[in-house]
Structures are given as structure tokens and as C-alpha cells.
Amino acid sequence: MTSSASASAQTSQRRIAFATIIGTTIEWYDFFIYATSAGLVFAQLFFQPAGHEIGLLLSFATVGISFLFRPLGAFLAGHFGDRLGRRAMLVLTLVLMGAATTLVGLLPTYAQIGTAAPVLLLLLRILQGLSAGGEWGGAVLMAVEHAPADRRGRAGSWPQLGVPLGFLLASGVTALMTGVVSPGAAYLEWGWRVPFLLSVVLIVVGFVIRRTVEESPVFAELAERGAQPSVPIVEVFKRHWHLVLLAALVFAGNGTLGYMTTGGFLNSYAINVQSLDTTAVLVAAATAAAVWFLSTLVAGILSDRIGRRSTFLIGFALQALVVFPVFWLVDNGGLPGLYTALVLISIGLGLTYGPLAAWYSEIFPASIRFSGVSITYAIGAVLGGAFAPMIAQMLLEATGSTTAVSGYLLAASLIGGAATLCLRDRSGIPLGPDHEAEQAAGATVFTARAEALEPAPAR
Predict the structure, then answer these.
(1) Which residue in 17, 60, 124, 222 could disulfide with 390, CB within 3.0 to 4.6 Å?
(2) 14-214+229-449 adopts what CATH topology?
(3) What are the transmembrane regions (predicted)?
């Protein structure tokens, strides 16, 4: 490769990295602002007649219900992403998420319009779920399919970084509103709306940036050949259902623990049960997001060196080790204990999240890859993160302690680790349409590799 071509490729990689990180950060800022507010104010504003405890359960339930619509968003985005291209879906999902988030900030409360308020809140959360279900697949494929084979882990970590960055931004803006701009009653009256309304500015920035990115070279080649399947999702479930299930369980093992923090449960527990200051808890969550960001980046790079599977196994081992200590720390260590607990969680989360984009991209054939990674991610989110905060809250109320919650998190981590052992590492496998047979075979330990299926050469 000439020096000018190399420089052009590096510039393109930087542009893609910037576009995927910024866009995914905005998407997940929108998503996490809702989850953060669900743990802080929605019980009082939208579910007031139910009382605090039931209202909190209902708030967390709306967080979970949106996950049920992620598979539909993944199905739609995957279908059109495999048919029409990755970039168009990136722009569409960003706009949909931003519109839904902004409208939440404009919603009247239960005191103003009665039961219509929680109904409208739920409808907008469903739109967020549809958008989140479709956005991730397009972002990771744009990053991974543009990357050199030996740097896919690092490139795949770029859109993954948008998740902790979105959580950092959501926690930081909410902490600013609760602690500085509108403390006390003012936050409950109007301050909670500001983070949602800020989404308008972020969406404009993200839209402009994502419009400048070139289409994935893998899709461009598929389109040139006219090789797009007519109904890719049917092909995914007909030939790769076992792969979808196993890979979804891998992500579920990450998401169950992850949504203890991003889903608002641990924040709510620290504030309502341990009586820690709201703003201080949000600052601790923002600090944890920064650690999650770093561990995700390190994990992506590490997976290029030791493989996706090995990185995941290390991460799940760390997760399993911390699920009991984290609540002991919060119960007995005050604010320093909360910081320590969140940091421990964030390290394991990064190791089981950073390599996910590259691994998912390497286990599905090119022609159905968008549908495959999107629907798998969405199902994993339903199995793992969807109702994790609500389940944790129910276990806490039923038992009066966090031991059952820790047991629940341990089971999820062990299941994720077991599913990881059932998948093969495919680091470096060619991603283009010329290698569909190799891509379609041998992704799990229960199926034969492509080379084993080939006839022996004539002697």
C-alpha cells in the first residue's frame, strides 16, 4: 500500500470511529436518561397513585417493557440494513431515538392529565426500544467491516464506547440538574425535563456526522453483486437459530449486571435504602462510567491479542467474583463503598462488552450479518437487561436483603460464561461475500468448521 493510500485509509478509520462513537453516545444518552429518571422521579410524577414502592416497580417495568420491542426494531433495521445498507439505518434510528426522548421531556405528568401521562410515557419508551434495537447492529458493522482483520476488536470497541459515554453523559447532566441547577423541589417540578430536551441539540450533531460516513465495503460489494437475500431474518432463524441463542446468552450475562447500574437499580438502592445523597450517587455513577469506558477500550484491544472468547471468559470470571461484595460494600462502606462497588462492576462489564461487536460480526455470514447481529443483541438484551432492575427490586422487597439479588447476578454471569464456552473464536475470519461458506459454518462447538465440510482433494 502506498503512503497516500495508507494515510487515506487511516483518515477514513478515524472518521468512522468518530461517527460511530458520537452517534452511539447520543443514542445511549437518550436511553439512559430515561432509566436514570425512572429510578429518581417517575414513580412520583407518572405513577403517583400507586405509592412509592409500587410506583418504583412500575417505573422499572417501563424500562424493561421497551426491551420487548428491541427485537422488532432489530428485525426492521436488520431487514432494511441487509437490503438497503448500513448507513441509512444509522441515521434513521438516531432521529427516531432523539424525537422520542425530546417528547418525554415535554410530557405532562399524572397530576396534569391523569392516566394518559403514564400511557404516553410508555409509548415513547417503546419508540426508544425500537430505535435501540436497530441502531447497534448498524453501528458495529460500519466499524468492524471497515477495519483491518487484526484490528477488528479495537474498531468494534468504538461503538461500544458510546454506551459508557452515554451513561456518563446522562449521569453527569442529571447530577448537574439535581445538585446545582435545580436542587430539591425544582428538580421534581422542571429540572428533570432539561436532560431530555437537550437531546434536540445532540441529535442534530449526530445526524450531520453520520451522514458523512461511507457505506460499509462489505455491503457495497453485496449490493454490486445483487446478493442481498429477500428476507434475511428468515435465513437467520432457519440456519443459525442455535447460534443466535448462544450469542444472546453471552450478552445477557453482561446485560443483567450492567443494568443494575445503567437501569437505575443500584442508584435507587443507594439513595432510597442507604440514604446516600442523590447528586453524590450520580457522580459516583458517572465515575464508574469512565472506568467502564476504559475497560471496554482495553478489552477490545486485548481481544485482538488473545481472542474474543478468552477476553470474555476473563470478564465473566471477574463478574462472578464481585456480585456479592458489591452490595456488602454499598451496605457498609457508605459513599466510598459505592464508588468501589461501581468500579468493580465496571471492569468486568468492559471485558464482557468491548469484544462483543467484533465477535458478533465474525460469527454471521455477510449477506445476513446485519439481521444476525441485531436480532441476537436484541434478544440478549431482553433475556438479560430488560427486567433486571425490576427483578432485583422484587427480590429486595420479597427477601429484605440483597443476597437474592447477588445470587441472581451470579447465575446470569455463569450462564454467560457457559454460553461463551459453546462458541468458537473466529478472530480474523474474512468478512466479505466471497467467504460465505466459511462464515456460515463452525461458529459453535456443536457444528463442523467449513474446512471439515470440504471434500478431500483428489489423489
Answers:
(1) 60
(2) Growth Hormone; Chain: A; (1.20.1250)
(3) 54-77, 89-110, 122-144, 165-186, 192-209, 241-260, 280-302, 311-330, 336-360, 372-392, 404-423
